[in-house]
From TrEMBL:
The gene is larE. The lineage of its organism: Bacteria, Bacillati, Actinomycetota, Actinomycetes, Propionibacteriales. Signal peptide: none annotated. InterPro entries: HAD-like_sf, HAD_sf, LarE, Ni-pincer_cofactor_biosynth, PGP-like_dom2, Rossmann-like_a/b/a_fold. Residues 447-467 are annotated as: Disordered. It comes from Nocardioides jiangsuensis. The keyword Transferase applies. It holds the Pfam family HAD. Keywords: Transferase. This is ATP-dependent sacrificial sulfur transferase LarE. One of its GO terms (molecular function) is transferase activity.
Length: 467
């Protein structure tokens, strides 16, 4: 990566070298065309037999003259953070003397994984290949040469002495004005790569039945499967049970039918499973087991090679997800997770594809509202659903916008979780708690912490034992 503006420090060190040797160099011109090895740049001013010693002297005085005046380019730290955010690693490959380059990294607190100095041009290719670099960011035509020789994507920024025309003529793939533009470019690049992986993986499946809840993740997976396989080799299966809100059913069917896929609405009977009703920390395991035990045979009867769930990459690292284990044990495929697609990326891609679910609020099953240790029953689930509809209606009647809303069943108490504007307005709106009381709760209160997915897990004393 090109991270620092070395011109001031480089120039100061050249001036010092000139003073020591009594040679006047065109410091300004040399500083504006950084990139080639120092020995090449000194060659017009000194005899060949002195170059090696002068390079050594330059390196020796460099720390005293170059570190302090050298600043990071605008956006350098954010660019490194963007790589880290996507789970990547960074390697700085530079022509600088390695110990001096390390001083810059330390002084400017750059978060880098590896630093390799004293390589230039095509010679950088071996280092890039060794570290598995897929993108190389530079500002010189020789950086482009190194990237291309390594088979890496060349991204050039116009912060050095090379023009856009020169960089494009050298074969760079991308030109950015500054590093400030890099995070957004990387977001798009990573999303494109992951969407390509998703399409490839789905095509390899041959045919799929998508476990389709109607939420943003499974809706996107269904649309992606249609793109990769065609609607005739894709099915949507929406399981009907007491835990699926009535309000979710028709929109889910309408969406699936709009894609031209066959729609199945099998009934599931998770309530018949003791572990589900008991509602210990592993309730989701029994729910997902019931779902896959129902969809697996259904898919086989109708000739679909795989059952796919909408598990995404965030779910895989979220920690407490016993349902994922149940689906894995039953052979379900997880194309979104396997492609590395996060919730944010799924929403971004859904918006780009024009899917109406791109900004749909998270809608976990109704059982997730019942506190662990309280037995799940149709009565409790129906009461929660009535309360959520009533609370949302009360807020909307008061002109308060709410996106994410949950009514948690804590036994005899309804804990109302709201987001943003609704949470701020709730204390002045008694109709909010009154709506939950009217739905059948003996007591109701607004949670001051607001809406947060998985808040019931906060009440588990030892979630590890349910993994």
């Amino acid at each position: 990566m090109t991270l620092i503006d070395t011109r001031p420090g480089f120039a100061a060190t050249l001036v010092q070298l000139g003073l020591e040797t009594g040679v006047e160099m065109d410091v300004e011109a040399m500083s504006e065309r950084l990139g080639p090895p120092l020995s090449h740049m000194l060659a017009p001013y000194y005899p060949a037999d002195r170059i090696t010693g002068l390079v050594d002297r330059f390196r020796a005085v460099y720390p005293d003259h170059a570190i302090a005046p050298t600043l990071a380019f605008a956006g350098a730290h954010d660019a490194l953070a963007a790589v880290r955010r996507h789970g990547g690693r960074t390697v700085v490959v530079t022509g600088k003397f390695t110990p001096n380059a390390a001083l810059h990294v330390e002084a400017l607190t750059f978060d880098v994984d590896h630093l390799v100095g004293e390589v230039w041009g095509v010679g950088k290719a071996a280092v890039l290949e060794e570290h598995g670099a897929t993108v190389y960011v530079g500002d010189h035509v020789h950086d482009v040469e190194g990237a291309l020789a390594a088979g890496a994507l060349s991204v050039s920024v116009l912060t050095g002495g090379c023009t856009e025309d020169e960089l494009r003529a050298a074969g760079t793939h991308v030109v950015l004005e500054t590093l400030d533009d890099f995070p957004a470019w990387l977001d798009g690049h990573v999303l494109d790569l992951r969407l390509a992986n998703l399409e490839h993986d789905l095509a390899e499946c041959g045919s799929v039945m998508v476990a389709f809840s109607g939420g943003a993740d499974s809706a996107f997976l269904l649309a992606a499967a249609v793109r990769a396989l065609g609607p005739e080799r894709v099915a949507a299966a929406t399981a009907y049970s007491d835990s699926l809100p009535q309000a979710e059913r028709s929109p889910a069917r309408d969406f699936a039918e709009s894609l031209g896929v066959k729609v199945f609405t099998p009934e599931t009977h998770e309530m018949d499973r003791d572990g589900y009703r008991a509602n210990a920390g592993d309730r989701c395991y029994f729910c997902k087991a019931e779902l896959l035990d129902t969809l697996g045979p259904l898919a086989e009867r109708h000739g679909y090679a795989h059952v796919a769930t909408g598990t995404n990459a965030d779910d895989a690292v979220a920690g407490f997800r016993p349902g994922i284990r149940a689906a894995h044990e039953r052979g379900a495929v997880t194309p979104l997770r396997d492609a590395g697609l996060t919730k944010e990326q799924i929403r971004a891609a859904s918006a780009a594809w024009g899917l109406p679910t791109w900004d749909k609020p998270a809608a976990a099953c109704l059982s997730s509202r019942v506190a662990y240790g309280i037995e799940v029953s149709p009565f409790r689930l129906a009461r929660v659903e009535r309360a959520e509809v009533a609370v949302r209606g009360a807020l909307e009647s008061a002109g308060v916008r709410v996106r994410d809303l949950r009514v948690r069943d804590l036994g005899d108490v309804a804990s109302i979780e709201l987001d943003g504007e609704a949470l701020a307005a709730a204390p002045a709106l008694p109709a909010v708690t009154e709506a939950a009381l009217a739905a059948g709760f003996p007591e109701a209160r607004v949670d001051p912490k607001g809406f947060r997915s998985g808040s019931m897990n906060e009440r588990l004393p030892d979630p590890e034992r349910f993994r």
